[in-house]
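Hi C.,

You asked whether I'd gotten around to modeling the 219-residue construct. I have! Everything is below, sequence then structure, no commentary in between.
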Amino acid sequence: LQAAAGYQTWFLGKWHLGGEGFWPTDQGFDVNIGGCDRGSSPGGYYGPWKNPNLTAREQGEYLTTRLTDEAVGLVEAAADRTKPFLLYLSYYNVHTPITADTRTIDHFRREAAERFPEPAEPVAEHDARSRSRQDNPDYASMVRAVDLSVGRVLEAVARAGLSDNTVVVFFSDNGGLCTLPNRVGPTCNLPLRSGKGWLYEGGIREPLIIRAPGVTRPG
């Protein structure tokens, strides 16, 4: 990509494709912010975490917000306007350990208490159990953190005047974690069956949204 088209290439977030010597900068990216061998955030979601490629700025800093700050900074300040860029932003959200975003958790806990006064029966799946209702407030707050963060990145692209010639691809790497051996997972994929780690549709079907100006159309 760099040699053929002169792209600046930036990686931020979850890498999970090998340890030192196999990090993003060893495999073609110019910049690596937070990518290491771990599939979940080393040291948790709040600073001080233990990521070898991203140090928290302050106690209690939220990792998802920090990755977004870094991405926005690259778009607004570090982007060489004479060269195109590839920004690969791979949030650790939503991944275990499920850790509430303190900014929105109270809202979702109130929502859950009002909408779901009674517990939901799990769905049997072989020797495991699946969550049968989307009712986990901690998980919801983590999804909301991604939603807010993606919005901030898109706003930065717009402020830079790049919306009309920037392709945006949003996707996930698995279906939601729904089914576990000894307890239900934190999310629910119904009407799709089961979830992450299973080959049923709940595990292998993923969100995918593409915005390519002049190519894709809403709906």
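If it helps when you're writing up: Residues 111 and 158 are 33 Å apart (CA to CA).

Thanks,
B.
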